[in-house]
């Protein structure tokens, strides 16, 4: 009698399949220096400007997913980040922030990728998983380090606040259940894992350029 191996759920495939890329992005020099407190508020503000471009593209893709029978379950209004980032930038740069922030070439490539693939449910799942679950996990560590090293309090750090998600773990559990319930076929699952790897690579490239700009 042949026993079929149990197929891992998508959330597990994404976590395990991106472990190396995730580690490489987290250990990029800019991230390590920022969290160690050896940079300055300007470096964090520059990061926030790149995040605005990325999340604007991601949340446009979220709007597309609202009309997708499978993808709509991954769209949560309480995850929306763009308004919070805009308030952070207004605090960090002042009221004329839109005229002074810059978007790096690596960020432009990241945004272009999101525009190109964001309407595909497997690719959207990969990018949303990479960004939002990271915000609810490691992002909270970043927030504490910015408070500790750079004197930032609530203003300027709203990106990391999720007032409609009082407890991250139960929400992340629900999100993973939604991922696992997408009913992707084998080809789509492989695509999601591949795209999540690409998301981490794009994020790492962004950190490399930020690091070069803030030596």
Automatic annotation (TrEMBL):
Source domain of life: Bacteria
SUPFAM superfamilies associated with the record: Heme oxygenase-like
Residue numbers binding heme b: 15, 22, 129, 176
Alphabetic keyword roster: Heme, Iron, Metal-binding
InterPro entries linked: Haem_Oase, Haem_Oase-like, Haem_Oase-like_multi-hlx
GO biological process: heme catabolic process; heme oxidation; response to oxidative stress
GO molecular function: heme binding; heme oxygenase (decyclizing) activity; metal ion binding
Pfam families: Heme_oxygenase (PF01126)
Protein name (database record): Heme oxygenase
């Amino acid at each position: 009698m042949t026993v079929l191996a149990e197929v891992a759920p998508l959330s597990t495939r994404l976590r395990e399949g991106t472990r190396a890329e995730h580690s490489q992005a987290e250990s990029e020099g800019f991230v390590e220096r920022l969290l160690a407190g050896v940079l300055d508020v300007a470096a964090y503000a520059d990061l926030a400007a790149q995040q605005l471009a990325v999340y604007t593209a991601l949340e446009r893709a979220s709007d597309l997913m609202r009309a997708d029978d499978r993808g709509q379950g991954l769209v949560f209004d309480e995850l929306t980040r763009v308004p919070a980032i805009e308030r952070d930038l207004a605090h960090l740069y002042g009221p004329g922030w839109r005229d002074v922030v810059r978007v790096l070439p690596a960020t432009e490539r990241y945004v272009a990728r999101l525009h190109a693939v964001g309407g595909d449910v497997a690719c959207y799942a990969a990018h949303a998983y990479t960004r939002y679950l990271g915000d609810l996990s490691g992002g909270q560590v970043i927030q504490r380090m910015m408070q500790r090293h750079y004197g930032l309090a609530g203003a300027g750090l709203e990106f990391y606040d999720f007032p409609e998600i009082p407890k991250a773990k139960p929400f992340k559990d629900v999100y993973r259940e939604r991922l696992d319930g997408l009913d992707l076929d084998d080809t789509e699952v492989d695509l999601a894992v591949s795209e999540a790897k690409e998301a981490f690579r794009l994020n790492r490239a962004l950190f490399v350029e930020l690091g070069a700009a803030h030596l």
